Amino acid sequence: VKIRVNGEMCQGHAACHAHGGDLYPLDEFGYSSLDVAEVPAGMEELARRGAAACPEMAISIEE
Amino acid sequence: MDHQRQPAVDFDHHTALFAADPDRQWRELRQNCPIAWTEAHGGYWVVSDYHGNHEVLKNHAVFTTERLRGLEGATTVLIPQVPTEYRALPEEIDPPAHTPVRRMLNAVSSPAAAAAMMPRIRHWVTRHIDAVIESGACDFAYDIASPVPAHITFEWLGLPLKHAKAASEAFHDMLGYPPGHERFTASITKRADVYRVLEETVAARRAHPLDDTISYFTQYEIDGAPLPNRAIVELCVTLVGGGLDSTASLTTSALAHLHHDRALRKRLTDEPELLVPATEEFLRFYPPFATTARTARTDTKLRGCPISAGDRVLVSRVSANHDPEAFDEPERFVVERFPNRHVSFGLGVHRCSGSHLARLMFQEMMRQILTRITDYEIDEQAMTRYPDRGFAQGWLTLPARFAPSARVGPWAEAVTGGRP
């Protein structure tokens, strides 16, 4: 399972980090620093929560 | 050249009729005609569904906040435009000019930067509650919700704190009283005083930088050049104007809600960790800025509706937040609603930069009020909303009584400059 963040669409709401924790690191400006990341086994649900929280709909989960 | 703008509706978000029942007005518009044209205020499109908020707010190339020809001298994010001495920066410019200014601001308004302010947020909330807690009575609006964000914001920027109380009253009264009312007129004078203090502070920090946010702005360089004082003042005007009464409105809305819903008040008191998801639901239910506005830069279409270059567009956040296409049972307040992708902080490049600080200020005010003033009763005869519900929504006055208790202080000096 992969997280894919559309960096062009990220506006720094930081909802992914609030709901998905360290799976969704932020840069020093509070925007997602992810492009594509592999989700560690067992953390898929957290990854899905972080993606679902994004008000810009900038995050997709690839199964 | 001028085509018929369809579908046309009879709608005006600033009338007393609208203010009497905005929920119903938005619902009817959203259900029947989510993209509609009205001739009120010189004519504007009204976008009232969730999808439409995304389409407009995320497309700044077409739906701009810039002061295009014919829109100079007044803010573009309100319909009708309101004349302003300062352009809102970076709100009223688009990329690419917007990007470096926003980047400068993001570095001091990120979640981490806001979290670092927690000790000061706690301090100002405690002091303001201390100022009223022995008396057993307060006005939540004027004594806590409005001055607390003002003190935190002033301290963060590096503005003289002695002006914070008057500034909070200026921005509060401006929304709470109609133009022509003596309190509205006084608020314009008080706001001019705030602007003068801003001008003076920016100039002073330019000459002698201190360890505050205005000094950081004056020392920051974009493409090797510092920003002119005027731009920094415009930025600070936006932060003060956007940051003070918005958080106040959210807080008064939540306190009024919890006056009526005692079971929820008890839950939030017993399980304070619920305040975090509850914050998002309060934001969804009661967006402090119910609407925003854009201008079409070019001819375009919005779901088939032909929009002409120069057309003004009103976007309803509060209506989007109650759109059943995006939220299950939108009329129900669900503390732990998830996902809760409300649009109260906006979408797109102009997302509220104060969103992270606002959440923390709101949560700390609620946490301390629910712990220390847990039995409050609001005077239902005296509680008064802002009269106009088409832009800002909140409570002008929220007088409350509660069992008196002891201060946590002592403090060296008083926080409040007396009740208005």
Can you offer a commentary on this structure?
The complex is a heterodimer of chains A (63) and B (420). With 63 residues, chain A is α+β, with helices and mostly antiparallel strands. The N and C termini of chain A lie close together (5 Å). Chain A has helices spanning 15-20, 44-52, and strands spanning 2-5, 36-38, 59-62. In chain A, strands 2-1-3 form a three-stranded antiparallel sheet, covered by helices on one side. Chain A has two helices and three strands, in the order βαβαβ. Chain B has 16 helices and 14 strands. In chain B, strands 1-2-10-7-3 form a five-stranded mixed sheet, sandwiched between helices. A three-stranded antiparallel sheet of chain B has the order 4-14-11. The radius of gyration of chain B is 21 Å and the shape is globular. The chains are: A alpha+beta (63), B alpha+beta (420). The interface between A and B is medium-sized, with 21 and 23 residues.
Layout of helices and strands:
The complex is a heterodimer of chains A (63) and B (420).
Chain A: E1 2-5, H1 15-20, E2 36-38, H2 44-52, E3 59-62
Antiparallel strand pairs in A: 1-2, 1-3
Chain B: H1 16-20, H2 22-32, E1 35-38, E2 44-47, H3 50-57, E3 63-64, H4 98-106, H5 111-115, H6 118-133, E4 137-139, H7 140-145, H8 147-157, H9 164-176, H10 182-207, H11 213-219, E5 221-222, E6 225-226, H12 229-260, H13 262-270, H14 275-285, E7 291-296, E8 300-302, E9 305-307, E10 312-316, H15 317-320, H16 355-372, E11 377-378, E12 384-385, E13 395-397, E14 399-401
Parallel strand pairs in B: 2-10
Antiparallel strand pairs in B: 1-2, 3-7, 4-14, 5-6, 7-10, 8-9, 11-14, 12-13
Helix pairs in contact in B: 6-8, 6-16, 8-9, 8-12, 9-10, 10-11, 10-12, 12-16
